[in-house]
Each structure stands twice: as structure tokens, then as C-alpha cells.
Design brief:
Elements (H helix, E strand, L loop, with lengths): L22 H19 L1 H10 L20 E4 L5 E6 L11 H8 L7 E5 L17 H16 L3 E7 L1 H10 L6 E5 L6 H4 L1 H8 L2 H6 L1 H21 L11 H6 L7 E7 L3 H9 L6 E6 L6 H7 L3 H28 L4
Parallel strand pairs: 2-3, 2-4, 4-5, 5-6, 6-7
Antiparallel strand pairs: 1-3
Length: 335
């Protein structure tokens, strides 16, 4: 069934605070401050980024000559009918974890699912191709489709946190994705780029005194969103981000099953979740945290792997019920 409803109040015109410093000095200062705040308030994240070589926020150079795609995609073919496609976020980590750790978590019930890991070292929301050129918006969905065709799986799940969640939704509108599991996906852009939410984050004094770590993380992510926007808008048609919600709703034959987890005390993420209650086949699930990285909240409690795998099992069960119903309708004799 075609979904045609448009979500109200999800505009794409974004008001961004003016830059008060020359671009080069501004970026250097923010690069230093981001590292300082990350080490102070998110030591585990900073250690993970350092271990993966992603703790430098300066723009890497585009590839010269042949491109080593293993920097951008890695595939584990286990011969399964199910494939999990994981999109790294702006930290170039998977739900804040190195790839090997996230991979082990996805295998904690000893399933044989195929695994695909994608990352964007340029930190441009996958809008930049591996060779450094533009048109990543077309390159990555095609890369996912080609990979899934080689794997031959019939049930494909896209997973992502933050910017990775945004890309999981975007790619699902152009690739054969049956289910999405997202953690604090950052769309529409105004939830982090809009001036209203920015001011709410910067002056959220109750959270600052109640939970300085939560405050610092959301504050840092909000500033990082401004940096990311400055970088990626050069790769966007008309310097406008795609309306991911509408693309999701327009997915044929119907929008895939999707679950959004979010920290209920994170102002931008709670705003994002509210905008998507009852939209398409999306279910929103609040978590008792003020962090943007709500996946880390689950991980700390030993629940992240169980939560993701339970969502996938529920999606598979719903798919199987639908298949049995369809088979019954086609085999039932006419009266």
C-alpha cells in the first residue's frame, strides 16, 4: 500500500548561527575543543575513536589513484538469508564502538547473519564518494544494492546511530531494506541545526547541574552538527538535505518496518522522535537517558545486542506471518 501522508512541520530550510571567527581559525579551535570535551566527558568514546584512528576531525584528503574500498565497506558472508547493514556515524564508529566490538555484539546469540559495515571517513553523511568526489547520495545506495545482490539474502536490516541512522533511512528508500533499527537518527536537520533547539541545548541549565555528562554530550553533538553541515552542504544538490522522512514514506511497495530508540531527556532527539510518532511503519521507543548516544546507555546495561537482535527477530516473525498469510490467500480455493 502506498503511503502518501506528509509529516507536518518537517521543513528543510535550516537557520544556522552565523560564524564569528574566520573559517580556518574557527575549525582549528573547534577541533581542539571537541577533542578536549570528548576526552573529559566521554573517555570511552575518545579511546574508541583513537583505537580506530578517527580522533582527528580535520578533513582527510580524497583518495589518489585506485580507491581501497575496504576503508569504506567490509562484508562478512555467512551464507545466511538475513543481512545486517551497519552504518557508522560521524564518529566513524558503530554505535560508538569499534567495528570488531560491534560485530561481536551482533553475534552474541551465535546467529549466522551476514554482516555489512559501511563508514564515511570524510564525515559528510555519505554524500561524498570514496574517491573524494561528490554524488555519494547515489554511490552508497548502489553499493548496498550490489552487495545485497551478491549475498542473496531475502531479509535485510539497516542499523545506524546518529548520522548513521539518517543514512539507514535514506538508503532504505533506494535499496532492498526490509527493516530499520536506528538510535537517535539526526533528521530532519532542524532538530540539531535549527536555532530554536540550539538555544534550548546551550542553555539547558537544569541538565547541566543534574547530569553534566549528558549536557556535555548533547552540547558537543549540537556543535558538531554545525561543523558537519558546513562540510557536507557542498556535496548537496541546491545545498539542501534530502527530506528523508518523505523519501521513507514514498518507499515502494511500502515503507519498511522501523524502530527509533532515543534518549527521552535529549532535547533534539526527543523532538525528532515526536515528529515521527505514527509515521509510516515507524515505532519510537524512549530510553531513560539524556544522552544522544542512547546505544551506549543500552550497552552499559548489557542490553544493546539483545535489543537489536530482539528487534530483528520481531521483524522476521512479522515477515513470516505475512508470507504465510499471502500463501494462504493464493492457495485457498475459490468459492
Amino acid at each position: 500500500m502506498r503511503a502518501t501522508a506528509r509529516v507536518p512541520d518537517v521543513g528543510q530550510l535550516v537557520v544556522v548561527n552565523p560564524v564569528l571567527f574566520p573559517k580556518r581559525d574557527f575549525m582549528a579551535i573547534l577541533n581542539y575543543l571537541v577533542k578536549l570535551v570528548t576526552r573529559t566527558f566521554m573517555p570511552e568514546l575518545s579511546r574508541n575513536m583513537e583505537s580506530e584512528g578517527t580522533f582527528d576531525f580535520n578533513d582527510p584528503q580524497g583518495a589518489q589513484g585506485a580507491v581501497d574500498l575496504s576503508r569504506f565497506i567490509q562484508v562478512e558472508d555467512n551464507g545466511s538469508d538475513v543481512t545486517i547493514i551497519s552504518f557508522a556515524g560521524m564518529a566513524v564508529l558503530f554505535a560508538g564502538m569499534p567495528q570488531f566490538e560491534f560485530r561481536n555484539m551482533l553475534k552474541e546469540d551465535r546467529n549466522n547473519y551476514n554482516l555489512v559495515f559501511l563508514r564515511d571517513p570524510y564525515r559528510t553523511g555519505y554524500f561524498r564518494q570514496p574517491d573524494g568526489g561528490g554524488d555519494g547520495a547515489n554511490f552508497y545506495p548502489e553499493l548496498v544494492n550490489q552487495t545485497l545482490a551478491r549475498l542473496g539474502s531475502t531479509y535485510n536490516v539497516a542499523i545506524g546511530a546518529s548520522a548513521g541512522g539518517y543514512v539507514a533511512f535514506y538508503v532504505s528508500s533506494r535499496a532492498k531494506i526490509d527493516q530499520i533499527v536506528a538510535f537517535s537518527p539526526c533528521f530532519p536537520p532542524e532538530v540539531y541545526l535549527g536555532l530554536k533547539n540550539q538555544l534550548k541545548v546551550y542553555f539547558n541549565l537544569p541538565q547541566l547541574f543534574r547530569s553534566p555528562g549528558d549536557f556535555a554530550e548533547v552540547f558537543l553533538v549540537t556543535i558538531a552538527a554545525q561543523l558537519a553541515w558546513r562540510k557536507l552542504r557542498g556535496y548537496l544538490t541546491g545545498k539542501v538535505l534530502p527530506d528523508v522522512t518523505q523519501l521513507y514514506l514514498d518507499t515502494q511497495p511500502e515503507p519498511p518496518r522501523a524502530t527509533i530508540f532515543y534518549g527521552e531527556r535529549s532535547i533534539p532527539d526527543a523532538d525528532q522522535a515526536r515528529r515521527h510518532i505514527g509515521v509510516g511503519n515507524i515505532t519510537v521507543k524512549p530510553l531513560d537517558t539524556g544522552r544522544h548516544n542512547c546505544a551506549a546507555y543500552l550497552k552499559k546495561r548489557g542490553l544493546l545486542g539483545k535489543t537489536i537482535l530482539a528487534e530483528i527477530e520481531a521483524g522476521l516473525a512479522a515477515r513470516n506471518v505475512a508470507l504465510r498469510s499471502a500463501n494462504h490467500e493464493t492457495t485457498e480455493p475459490a468459492k
